[in-house]
User: What shape does this take?
Amino acid sequence: MNNAILSTPEKTYENISHASNEVAGRLAARLAQETQGEVLFTSADRGRYATDASIYQVIPLGVFVPRDSQEVSIAMDICRDLGVPIVPRGGGTSQCGQTTGAGLVIDHSKYVRNVLHIDSEKRTAVVEPGLVLDHLNAQLKSKGLWFPVDVSTSAQATLGGMAGNNSCGSRSIAYGNMVHNVLGATARMSDGSVMQLGRFEQSTGRAKAVGEFVQQLAKQLQPEIDAHWPKVLRRVAGYNLDIFCNQNERPYTTDGSVNLAHLLVGSEGTLAMTQSLTLQLAELPRAKVLGVVNFPTFYQAMDAAQHIVKLGSGTLTAVELVDRTMIDLSLQNPAFAPTIRTALTGDPEAILLVEFAGADKESLKPHMRQLVELMGDLGLPNCVVEMIDDAPQKNLWEVRKAGLNIMMSLKGDGKPVSFIEDCAVPLVHLAEYTNALTEVFKRHGTKGTWYAHASVGTLHVRPILDMRRDGAKKMRQIGEEASELVRKFKGAYSGEHGDGLCRGEWIEWQFGSRINDAFKQIKQHLDPLNLLSPQRIIDPPKMDDTRLMRYGNNYQVIHIKTALDWSAWNVHNDPVTEQTTAPGTGEDPSHGLAKAVEMCNNNGTCRKFDAGTMCPSYRVTRDEKHLTRGRANTLRLALTGQLGTEGLANPDVMEALDLCVGCKGCKRDCPTGVDMARMKIEATHHFKAHYGFTLKDKLIAYLPRYAPWAAKFASILNLRNQFPWLAKVAESMTGLSAQRSWPTWQSDHFFSKQQPGVSKQEVLQSTKPVVLFVDTFNGFFESSNATAALGVLQAAGYSVHIASKDAPSGSQGHLCCGRTFLANGMVEQARQQAHELVNALLPFAQKGIAIVGLEPSCLLTLRDEALVLGLGASAELVSQHAVLFEEFLASEHKAGKLEVLKQNLKPAEKDILLHGHCHQKAFGLMPSVLDVIQLIPQAKPQLIESSCCGMAGSFGYEASHLDVSMQMAELSLLPAIRHQPDAIVVADGTSCRHQIADGAAREAIHVAQLLSDHLLRH
Ligand SMILES: Cc1cc2nc3c(=O)[nH]c(=O)nc-3n(C[C@H](O)[C@H](O)[C@H](O)COP(=O)(O)OP(=O)(O)OC[C@H]3O[C@@H](n4cnc5c(N)ncnc54)[C@H](O)[C@@H]3O)c2cc1C
Ligand code: SF4
Ligand code: SF4
Assistant: This one.
């Protein structure tokens, strides 16, 4: 890309300091001079940090990403000098706007994330605040320990953020909330002093003074505290003044002592900056069993919770709700449907996930029996699905954890909104409370989907509101009525997700004015300068202040003519039935693109590092900018004119998309299906239309068109790989790295021979027909793959026809899907290519003949982008018959049609490692490849748990991407291959094979080649 047109941070600081915003300029300059941290002050950077998983948006003055905790201190000192407020941040997954604020956002998640100490005997760990919970638990696993506050966002939530919000997990009935599991903290105050917070009786200095101050407040207010404090486990509002007179169902400490670190827990960054936390670890449960109770009515599920929690003699660890709407949404989601089906008997209105954990499964089985008996006693025999094995349990928990996100996948402007989402009521009132609140929703023309923590009376529910229209008004009305119910049932209004911008105004309502005044005194005592997250908890704004909202009064999408068809997103929805209107009727000035982008609710799932593909570029850089969320936010800001008037031609957009490899990991792994790969095509199209195409763009994009001629000069073109100086010259002209070999041209390639296979007429009349679509890459560069595929299909008894243009023969007749044009934003040229391909394949599709492809990114274009290029019903029909080689064979095998082939395969003699192409993974096709490899006797393929290989079409060939590309490959793919030097490596993607050759000096082969190599030659 053209770097000259991108703004550099240095330039931005200059601009800022020369412009009116003097303070921002000085702040940025001092941070840059006095630290090595990342100083992010562009509009796009600030916009990316203006939101979290809430409905709010507040643009900060700037963002600082410190390299270590010392740099956090320096930044705090600079902010104090300049009077700039500070907003501490971890993963930014708060739901109430805790991390949206007007000052300097300090992001701990990139660097300040070390485990400082683990004491296995005492079961304690000391950690930095930016460490992600799952990453800590991964380190603890081998010691048989874990930190048991298992929030749903465990793959992205940081421990500092969890402490800030007093987070609580699904298993809080067994382990308590964050406050019950923090033993100590080192915290820096806004005046620069550092406090060691721990047991009050052992405290000294400033910490002791703070403790005495709070103790005296608590003493004075004891009667108020006793009268007003909610007596439930899940109360997270305000400050924990009750550490001196416990009101929680579960005391904060096991020995009744007072721990001053608990004052910080739940303070949402308003009292002090956490530098480190000492955590109480727990023994990792050795065995778990799960009973899934299916209920015919929602009320019965709610009513049963109070009885179920009495089971288990201390082994009960969770009772979690999944309601009918959530069940239906899971059934519609291809990733979750098979799992949710395993949990159902009949057609329940709700299920409760009841978990028991202990030393071994045998000892837990009696509790499961008790559960079955209890349900029988309650008039519900045969309603428990018993899950004893770990794998199905794990899968079901993943679905439950993704619950909220599944719900958020509703298209249209109405979205489930979090504002009364975690009110906690005593269990005896749960059924009555949920009934009454459902009636409230009905009165306001909406409905809520209920799920989560039935064990502790904290059910999550989000009514569907349209925040661009009457959402704020309804939010106020529903909030008022919900609060009356919470008061009636003596519950807590804020029971899990904190106060932030959303619930701050309810703190005084909950506790009364005297306790609220005490909170103000605590804030004044610890942060007299009011530097830390001002107007949070103390002096909060109104929750329905639309000036603070992401979709506030001035939110307006710019008019834009899109190159791809986004009409599927351009819909309205009905908040009660959740039905959406016809595609294209949503009145989006960007024809659905903005609505597709707005599907990102900022929940941060794309920050995970575990299995799955999303998001390889973030895994390497850990930058918000290189994250699906950061990209979606950048696009949203650009599409709404918040980054200027250029729309998608804004260089900030291209900068954010630069490292997106178009892997489609997000399309599958993002719970709301944000498809950044497709968005990148659209954005690239607009950017390039404005700034023009480079030589590299054209060289890559037009490759399928010039390949037939280029192949004739193979020996000359291949000299580039033999002479380093030629490679350097080529790099300077094209930007394609001299350190990479280029694919080798073949003068004798698949298309240069007499067309093999049967004719069009023959295949149309055959009883065992297959059409093989040989793409540019396999045809011109690795023609042995095409020959191998042909041979295997013929050995299996199929009449194989090679797809080609109707008239020309040989290489002039080869077909192309348009992928190289799409990748470079040349949508019109891609449309022409795809149109030609679709027309050529249509007669076969009309006859129901399978169209088999070899290169995942090419074949799957027919099932993806070709459907949004305006090619109509023909493209739809062709897509229904377009399958990858392995998919075809796997389904034929299931149908019992491969007996001849199986008898023709000799046994495998080596281990087989399999790497999936990202698009294969995005379409859920890896099981097919595994099935097909297992046609070979004795083959035991091992799937490498890898994200993108990093080559991703031309991405890894580009000099500017070489390092990132290799880092992606080194995350897991290349080490796994090196670990097994004798194994055969199978990779169906052309670029994956090239990356493996470059990075591990190993030849990877297509699965068609593997099968062909194992054919018995008669
Ligand atoms: C889909 C979804 C599911 C969720 N499920 C749960 C759940 O099961 N249980 C639950 O409790 N929550 C849940 N949450 C809310 C959220 O994920 C948790 O509160 C999480 O712990 C926040 O972690 P974070 O790193 O994102 O913190 P952030 O959102 O970045 O910050 C949280 C608070 O901590 C403060 N903070 C951060 N670092 C520091 C520091 N160093 N010093 C002082 N203050 C600091 C911030 O200012 C902010 O007030 C969910 C959210 C989403 C979107
Ligand atoms: S892109 Fe998807 S996974 Fe990432 S924050 Fe947005 S909605 Fe969540
Ligand atoms: S397509 Fe891949 S690299 Fe791009 S945002 Fe999605 S997951 Fe990340």
